[in-house]
Amino acid sequence: MLIEGLYKATANEKTAEGISAKVHLNKDHAIFKGHFPGNPVMPGVCMIQIIKELTEEATGKYLFLTVSSNIKFMAIINPEKNPDLQLAIDIAQENGEVKVKNTTSFEDTVALKLSATFKVIDG
Fold it and tell me: Residue 11's CB: how many other CB atoms inside 10 A?
């Protein structure tokens, strides 16, 4: 985990397309004191890192983001109001690459959609 203590995976199930995961955000993590004081917001780059880490766990491979062809931040993720997130991650592996399509949501709200390509790197 790159950012220790930011989140905890509470469920992770393989699906036909990839994985379905649930994470719980730590609202008391130091990152939220600066982003933003008095109004914590989950940084988008941290969400991308969580998706990468969950994909690495699912594939058993170390990954490096090479292409982010589509990233849409559709709702603010406030860890005090919505600490529990659901992530649907479709994973396709081919030619040393891992292609990912993700939808992240809380309750009935879609917060993030991402299409990305990761290069498999040697660990």
Answer: 12
